[in-house]
Protein: non-reducing end alpha-L-arabinofuranosidase
Amino acid sequence: TLKVDLAKPGIPVSPTLYGLMTEEINYSYDGGLYAELVRNRAFKDDGKTPVHWSVVQDAGGGAAIALDERYPVPATALTTSLRLDAAHAAPGHRVGVANDGYWGIRVKPGTRYRASFYAKTDGAGSVPLTVSIEGVDGKTVYAQAVGGRISGEWKRYEVTLATAGNVKPTADARLVIATESPGTVWLNQVSLFPPTYKDRPNGNRIDLMQKLVDMKPRFLRFPGGNYVEGGSVETRFKWKETLGPVEQRPGHPGTWGYRSSDGMGLLEFLLWCEDMKAEPVLAVFAGYALNGENVPAGPGLQPFVQEALEEIEYVTGDVNTKWGAQRARDGHPAPFKLRYVEIGNEDGFDKQKNYDGRYTQFHDAIKAKYPQLKLISTVNGKDWLGQQQKVTSRAPDLIDEHYYYNPMQMMNDAARYDSYERKGPKIFIGEWAAQEGDPTTNLHSALADAAFMTGMERNADVVEMSCYAPLLVNVNPGGVQWRFNMIGYDAQASYGSPSYHVQKVFSNYLGDVSLPVSAQKVGTQTWQEAAPKETPQLLPPAREVPTMFFSATRSAQRGEIYLKVVNAIGTAQAVKVELAGAGKVAPDGKAIVVSSAKKEDTNTIAEPAKVVPVTSKVSGLGKEFSYRFAPYSVTVLVLSTR
Ligand code: AHR
Structure:
């Protein structure tokens, strides 16, 4: 029996309970959400060779490409160009360069692409260039345009390429820039964009944006994660170097083994929020980098505090402020709404253990100028990192906790917040996921995620915000740095994991008040935790973990109750539901169910909809009713009180 008590007032649910977390990992932006199709467009990825670029020549030989630092494009960050020696080009014998994209280039029928590039010759004459999207074997040309006659001075060229309506979709394609006239050509910032979400220049991939918008996320935590910290202080996320025209952005080494173009810069993050109607949760660099470099509190830290204050001004300042004016020049005069700022990321890993002082310096400076902002500490003393750091000098508004567990461990932890300290700061579960399924998580993980989320909803007085991580993964083997992710894609297509669908359903049926709900006779499943690596002979005692998890919320505005139930086992469970103290409960409602025959079932590029929500009408509802929860299922019962 599940008993929901409507006679009690319940506890308000934070409207920001469900959001998104993002950073450059798994080719999330370059090769992912950021719609640029050309890889290594500014030739800095490797520094020695023009990776992802190759020579194209119809016949003969002699053509060559090489990186060249002798001719930077004036007044830009484009310091390394690609030299094409095309002395043997001749009518009928084209010579050029090809880019293989991020594991291919997406070709769709009836689609307009914007190509652009900087180019110059050695001044010995003008060289006409053509731009084409063609098959990797060079035989099929999907779209072509005249790129312009290139002269001895650097100049930017832009062309539109359009595919025919009957083109067969493929990712087996490349971008080619070529000539049939002899000469030497230098190229820089070679770019190709398909249509983007809301048609934004320098914008985002449409299918991925739509998936994110459908989740109705209330916030976006960015730019990390590790990515905000940087591999070193020098390579932290330097937001000022991510502003303005992309040719002004030098890019930087990311923290997950590849270079970032910084096409996804600070303003793009904010526009991304705007497009999702989500608010930014801005993480600022706090003096600690992943290589252990540490800038302790004091005068040495002050430039970084100042950097954070200026970043906040860029986001929120009006056009009369220095950085608000810069934002206006960048194309967005209206300030963005900002309520949350996070100081660093996972500072519990900091061996110097001096976060308290660093946090305090940021806290005091930010609160002095922006008292309305809620500040988030990244350590808690308890501690989810096995560290014992705690902020004691100041009272953070929230604490960011991270949980990456296997599904059974996550289910075992679903009651974590039932007995949590109520007097301390609110909790922001800024990264978490049940981890089974590779490179995107499976139904077992989704069941555990949902179990954990019922715990968040029941404890909405403590948990103010949460966001799953990582969000995005390019599923090509070279694209995966983290094995358990929410949304997968390749150059051509994308899909949501079962975890994605569960997140989406929970977020779409959030409610505004969490109702007391209790249960009788919940069964258990046995979980044998693995032995610690150091003592493999010492198995911890087996644990009994519930087979069913639940929460209930109410939306006053919609006049609805959302009863969320997770059946974590492979047999159906019949449950009697009592809505104590309810007024009217309509006999008809609906059920949204995410389930599948096996808990290992999952979605993939080839089978994107194996585990998806199914909505059906339910009759026979009322103040008391019985419902059979399907095996391995997450169910949201929507009950109308009108
Ligand atoms: O989500 C992947 C990584 O996990 C994040 O970058 C980091 O904060 C955490 O350790």
